[in-house]
Amino acid sequence: MSISFSKKGKKTSGKNRAFLTAIALCCAAVALVAWSSALNNSSQSATDYKVEDFPVQDYTDSNIEWYDDESESVYHEEEPVPPSQSVSVEENLPEITQPVSIQTEYTDPAAVSVSATVSTADTEIELAEVSYQLPISGGIICDFSGNDLVFSKTMCDWRVHQGIDIECAVGTSITSCGNGTVFDVIDDPMFGTTVIMDLSGGKTLYYCGLESSSVTVKKGQSVKAGDILGTVGVVPCESADGTHLHLALVKDGVYVDPIASLGIK
After folding, report:
1. What's the pLDDT score for residue 148?
2. Is-contact 213 234, C-beta < 8 A?
3. What distances in angstroms separate CA 4 from CA 1, 9, 14, 65, 198, one per listed residue?
4. Whole-number pLDDT of residue 17
5. Domains of the chain, start order
6. Whether this model's pTM surpasses 0.70
7. Which of 98, 167, 197, 220 has the fewest CB atoms within 10 Å, i.e. is most exposed?
8. For residues 192 and 231, is the Cβ–Cβ distance under 8 A?
9. 224-238 burial, b if ≥16 CB within 10 A, otherwise e?
10. Are 184 and 219 in contact (CB under 8 A)?
């Protein structure tokens, strides 16, 4: 089957296209005229009105009404009082006939009493303080070594010396260096019979090398400076150094020099 076009058909098709084109042009012209007319009307409307034509509301303070949301009541701003009707505050004040004393500094009674208490306590502490003394008369044959090692003739080794050795004869009376309480009396295999005494300020004294049978104090007993504790015996771990009293002081858990810490001269 073949497709063919006649001359008559070709002419008919050309006429249709011309007709449609004419209709389209007419529609475009109509749309253009309508758009131009609308634009002119809009411009005219904008120019017809002036600023003076709009109503102006007077927003002066006298016309403002304040509203409270909670009470829904209206508050009007109060008008100023003329000078002739003003009220003087001084007219309502009472007349002062006598001078008034104004206290500019506040003194707390509690602070005064506390201060007095502290001062009294300091005075009592100062009166209670006593000087310390050596427990026996004699020369120091071995000083406190701290962390330094010293040679022990008895033990034949190097070790720290945590006290002082005071030379004396056997049977010499030993007195208390100061006021205190006997913490305990023990027999130590290395240092012999030892009286342990608590002093004030976290200090503990060790009197080592007493004759066991000569001890005159017991645990819990209060003693004063100069009270006799016993007599000198032997210090087993230092016997090669001759007869002496080994005196050691512990302060806050640490061995310290008794001479320097107690202020013994």
Report:
1. 97
2. no
3. 10, 10, 17, 92, 139
4. 73
5. 140-259 (2.70.70.10)
6. no
7. 98
8. no
9. eeeeebbbbbbbebb
10. yes
